[in-house]
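Dear colleague,

Following up on yesterday's call, I've attached the two folding results inline so they're easy to grep. Please treat them as preliminary; we haven't cross-checked anything against experimental data yet. The first protein's sequence and structure tokens come first.
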Amino acid sequence: PEGADAAAASARIYNRLFAWSIVLMVAVVCVGVGLLVRESAREVHLARARADFVVGVSHDLRTPISSMKMLAESLYLGNVTEESKKIKFLKTIARESDRLADMIERVLFFVREEHGASIYTMKECSIGPLVKDVAESFEERRHGLVTVDVVVSDEPPILKVDGDALVKVLINLLDNAEK
């Protein structure tokens, strides 16, 4: 009888361990499926975002190219005879070329960021003069069509930044503000 009780107790423990291991395996499988579903949803979201980005970039690139082509063809075919209009057309072509180059640079920047290929060189920099330079450069590239007012404190902060990356961010902000 004692051996039978011990065998029955051992069988109960074995059955409990077996039941709990099944419960644990089911829980692990459920967590794994949940993680897989979440990661798949994230990948689908990223794929849609990339597709939307490509569509947006394609549209944004077509606009200046179409404008430049039309103006250049008008000049080439001799449809524009007034010297002032020729200069205006050439200025527009130059401005659209700058805009196109900026867009391409931004696309390349985002691609490098997505692939983790950007390398930042951090240096101490006074932010005030950098912001003023970016604003002046932006105005020049817009050929006086846009004015940017910059107010900088008497003692602008000195921060450790990658100046080139900060310039790109500021230009992007100004472009978005202009739009």
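Below is the second protein, in the same order (sequence, then structure):
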Amino acid sequence: MSKQPRISFEFFPTKTDAGHEKLLTTAAQLATYNPEFFSCTYGAGGSTRDRTLNTVLQLDGEIKIPTAPHLSCVGDSKDDLRELLHLYKNAGINRIVALRGDLPSGMGMASGELRYANELVEFIRKETGDHFYIEVAAYPEMHPQARDFEIDLQNFARKVRAGSDSAITQYFFNADCYFYFVERARKLGIDIPIVPGIMPITNYSKLARFSDSCGAELPRWIRKQLEAYGDDTASIQAFGTEVITNMCERLLDGGAPGLHFYTLNQAEPSLAVWDNLKLNR
């Protein structure tokens, strides 16, 4: 590795005061490692709009780590989006993760004036110029709703050409799929950084269920080993840390510009990998 990789951590806004206090404690612990930024998710159809806004402003203002809100266009009008953009801009937020967003339960098709992430990126650029550093999503194993890999790759290219600065991938457990995706993107002339998303392994049943729903392949050898551990949480976590550390080493050695950890509002699983990688603090 020629330089210190870009490291970032993702949170989700909580529904309770107790959960929010735990999130802030976790963020304060992660902040001691000096990540480049935090990000905070945005619920389906904007369902966590206010909680996302409040969490972002608190992480950025009190924890003192630059924080990027996720912003999705599904279910929001241009006026809603415009208001949020200017709230964030006026608060000194300068990075955004721009997504189409998930459809709320029961919604058969996208609603709102903007339907796709490339349209959202264009809208952000039109409204705020170059104020925001815009991250978009990438899917090395293909978006679960895409018809095929080639179409999904072209969708990614449209988001980039609309004005994105870098991309964060869906998590995966096979480094080869990341390298193949980056190679294909480069052949299309896409030269922005593509940062792999990393999901620590801490709980087999939740991970398997979540992976099946979002299209992230959980390799059979990992499934079988995790199944063999049963309820042995310590063994699951030790195995998970080893698997993820080895994958991250390969990604960074192979040229990945950094790592984006999906923390699930926990510090220890991500930091165990960070410490194994001996990254600078």
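For the second protein, one point worth flagging: The mean pLDDT is 92.

Best wishes,
A.L.
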